[in-house]
Specification:
The complex is a heterodimer of chains A (271) and B (284). Chain A is mainly alpha-helical and 271 residues long. Chain A is built from 13 helices and no strands. Classes of the chains: A mainly alpha (271), B alpha/beta (284). Chains A and B meet through helix 2 and helix 12 of A and helix 1, helix 4 and strand 6 of B.
């Protein structure tokens, strides 16, 4: 009891302005915590495991894990060179390039989905050609991965670019003096030093890809086992079986928490 | 001075927070009359208090109800009718989870019955206000060269349906059952194997076919009226499914009078004429 009184004295007492910070923070924190707590509270029912292990939930979970992993892999393979080039090379229009790469981060995913459909749909700019040679992308798992790549890859590129940019220029110069070539410099100096930024960027991309909804439902549609990822199963399940939707949400929250904890740890080691 | 400044800042944050929290709930109708006299001289004829009617409506009604809503607002000065168009099953869930609605117009009796069971709608109050039937739609250039219903089973074509939980998705599967019995067993399975996506509401099915992403879709006859550029294959009456749309006020509505008035308008000759113009079959 005394401890509580002491706390109140410290916060609201004469000559202290702590509450100016504490009160608004508390309101916002409650705003985030309450809905998530309510969801978990309602989801943890006797049928939680039956819901989580239902065929639909399992298929969605599997599809989400597979597609988001592939998305992350493609992002790392193609995004690392791009991030390096952005961080280390000097060329014209670089600022514009960076702006284009940051755009998907702030754009609504529905815009991304529409853009993908207009480009790669059967009547699309590129899609019409692909369709003529026998490839059709919409409504396929490939479409799911493309939607994820579009919205999630920029997070990795951004993080990796900043990581590469922080590598000490002198190290680079002395490596050249020692006779290292571009590739050696990249693999033996840049990557090991920037590895934490790369890893935390990759995890951010993975988390974002796991959560992708808007672009996917527009571009890839909804078919169990083919394009129905977890977020879409949650959306559809909301109308059929709230239990499955809530159970899947809790699973998604758990996976996201774990991934975020790993990034936190990586950031800490960085410092 | 600094303290005072931060205090006012905090206060304003609080006020905006409270204000924002209050906006989504429509102002109860009872409040309006008590407010009106204060800003009007007692002799003036009282202006009608502004009222908002919220109608949750099946996605297939999008065009027809938008028109009916505008006409209803004109006929009732001070009234603003707002719509939430979505699949009836989505609207039903939203109502169950406490969304504030005054009227529910469903594309299937099932969703309405669920709300009656849950005491969101009074028993025996829902009235059927129109019927609708199914049709197969194709993109304008018919890329898969489909000519008759049997062609829906052609291997490799892309068919888009509404999901099973969506009324039109359920009706489409019932119609496929009827066709299965008529065209020979295996027909339904072959068509379902061609399904590339189960969309969330009927308008999404129309959009996917309009864009040419799908070769065929099963929607309501009324949807073709709203999208005349689409080609269609008629489904004969013996293979078709008649959708009956019920409408009802919600028990928790704070605008019960207005809700009743809207439903009356939908069932009136004027309302039914608008529905007929958009391709629905009126009941009156």
């Amino acid at each position: 009891m005394n401890k509580l009184r002491e706390f109140f004295r410290q916060v609201f007492g004469e000559g202290t302005s702590k509450w100016i910070f504490l009160l608004p923070s508390l309101i916002l924190l409650l705003f985030f915590a309450l809905p998530l707590t309510a969801l978990i509270y309602r989801a943890i029912a006797p049928d939680f495991f039956a819901n989580t292990l239902s065929k639909q939930a399992f298929q969605a979970l599997k599809l989400s894990l597979v597609t988001s992993s592939i998305t992350t892999l493609i992002t790392v393979v193609l995004g690392t060179p791009l991030a390096y080039l952005l961080a280390r090379w000097k060329f014209r229009f670089k600022a514009w390039l960076e702006l284009i790469l940051d755009l998907p981060i702030v754009l609504p995913p529905s815009v991304a989905g529409l853009a993908l459909l207009i480009a790669f749909g059967r009547r699309g700019l590129i899609g019409a050609f692909l369709s003529n040679i026998g490839f059709s992308i919409p409504f396929t798992t490939t479409a799911v991965i493309m939607a994820q790549l579009f919205v999630a890859a920029p997070l990795y590129i951004r993080s990796a670019r900043i990581g590469f940019a922080h590598v000490d220029k002198q190290l680079e110069e002395s490596a050249y003096v020692e006779g290292a070539n571009q590739l050696q410099l990249f693999y033996e100096i840049m990557i090991p030093i920037a590895i934490r930024a790369l890893a935390s960027g990759a995890i951010l991309t993975w988390t974002r890809a796991l959560g992708e909804f808007g672009a996917t439902i527009l571009f890839a549609g909804n078919l169990e086992g083919v394009t129905q990822t977890m977020p879409i199963a949650i959306y559809i399940g909301f109308e059929r079986n709230l239990g499955v939707a809530m159970a899947l949400s809790v699973v998604l929250i758990l996976v996201s928490v774990i991934l975020l904890m790993i990034t936190k740890q990586l950031d800490k080691e960085e410092e | 001075m600094k303290r005072l400044l931060s205090l006012t800042l905090l206060l304003s944050i609080f006020l905006t927070a409270c204000g924002a929290a209050a906006t989504p709930t429509p102002a109860p109708a009872t409040e309006a009359p008590t407010l009106a006299p204060t800003d009007l001289p007692p002799t003036a004829t009282p202006k009608p208090a502004p009222q908002t009617l919220t109608v949750f409506s099946a996605a297939s009604l999008t065009d027809a109800f938008t028109e009916i809503g505008a006409a209803f607002d004109t006929a009732n000065p001070g009234v603003t009718t707002t719509f939430n168009f979505a699949g009836s099953q989505a609207l039903r869930t939203q109502i169950e989870e406490g969304a504030p609605a005054d009227v529910f117009a469903s594309a299937s009796g099932k969703e309405m019955e669920t709300l009656v069971t849950g005491s969101f709608v009074t028993k025996d109050v829902p009235q059927v206000f129109l019927t609708n039937k199914l049709v197969v739609i194709l993109p304008a250039d018919n890329p898969a060269a489909l000519e008759k219903l049997e062609d829906l089973a052609n291997p490799g074509i892309k068919v888009v349906l509404a999901a099973e939980e969506v009324p039109v998705g359920k009706y489409a599967r019932q119609a496929l059952d009827l066709m299965d019995a008529s065209f020979g067993t295996g027909f339904k399975d072959k068509v379902l194997a061609n399904v590339v996506s189960n969309e969330d509401n009927v308008k999404q099915v129309v959009a996917k076919v309009q864009l040419g992403e799908a070769d065929a879709g099963i929607v309501y006859v009324s949807d073709v009226v709203a999208a005349p550029e689409l080609k269609s294959i008629e489904i004969p009456t013996d293979l078709n499914v008649i959708a009956k749309y019920p409408i009802a006020p919600l028990v928790k509505s704070e605008n019960a009078d207005l809700a009743a008035k809207f439903i009356e308008y939908v069932l009136s000759a004027e309302g039914q004429a608008v529905l007929a113009r958009w391709g629905f079959s009126p009941v009156k």
